[in-house]
Specification:
The chain is mostly beta strands. Helix content is 3%, strand content 58%. The chain has a 14-stranded antiparallel β-barrel with strand order 1-2-3-5-6-7-8-11-12-15-16-17-18-20. The chain is elongated, with a radius of gyration of 21 Å.
Amino acid sequence: MRVKTLVAVLGWMGVQGGAWASGFALVEQNASGLGNAYAGQAASAQDASTVFYNPAGLLRIEGSQLVVAGHLLETSAKLTDNGSTLGALGSGGDLGGFAFLPSFYYAGDLRPGFKWGIGVNAPFGLKTEYSAPWAGQTQGVTSHIKTINVNPSLAWLYSDKVSVGMGIDYQKAEVGLSSSATAPAVNILKLRGDDDAWGYNLGMLVKLDNNTRLGLAYRSELKYRLAGRATGPVNGAIAANLTTPASASLSLFNRLNERWDILTDLTWTGWSSFDKLATTGAVNVTVPENWNDTLRLSVGANYRKSDTWTWRVGLAYDQNPVPDAEHRTVRLPDTDRTWLALGGQYKMSDKGWIDFGYAHLFMRDASINHLEAPIRVKGQYQGQINIVSAQYTHTF
């Protein structure tokens, strides 16, 4: 579900859990794309949420438009122990839970050939919680990462076939992690920190013909210097560097006929920027992560049943960045996932409509064999994710 900034940075305390996209990224930024498993989002530009996926798509919005969306995410992940050092303490129960993710967008006119927009959303996130005492409590008990991102954007019609866009990202991250400093007793050490950072996003939308659009989009890295405190067995100031990954998307939208659209997407995420986590101050630790870059491939279809109703379906395959069982941690036992999504749209009028969607994410079983001396956690995670989203769009 997936703000992994501090989780990455302070990952040695080990409280990871389900994420919604690769690593700790959150792809759920609208409800109108969920039914397509977010296929083609850099090319579809169906509403003002294109601020996030490709700001060049703002030029496809007529007039001013407001979008308000909400996403309910339910994750479940359980560890079957297979030889952990403290295996007798148990497997920590279900480390998942529920989370609510809102997002907001607005698009407006400037002058002919120019549009502006703004988005408020959460591009990264993470929440996990084990039931202590458990076999991996020295590596993690609880963890949360929250981000809020404000993204003003501008789009320009370069030619009758090409539009370009750019946005500025101001993002704030807050992280809280806990672990047990001793075993088998529970003596909780907590780490908390926050910071803000600046980034940018770019996009291009190309009209190949009257029925086909190609979208290209890029989001930059954001670099944090997290500052906070450790409390518990150790007390004092701490600091950590954190870099959230860059990403790039190539999308295609094709209107086959009056009823059907086909959407496809390939997204790269540069998780290799997360090669280690390190903290300084009252707590000093360095843990190798060595994550890999990932790809996400998705395909979707729209069926316009009438002027009032549109139905959507989508399928996606999402790679995870963890290289092997030795680098998989209890903080984020990430794994490859396959998305199956359904959704639709109901138009109440030409000015207002509701989008909705549901996705089930099938999680591949993930082995863990992670050592943070002298404690090893060894076993296999099994999990799943469910997402329900709804959105209201109003054009002025």
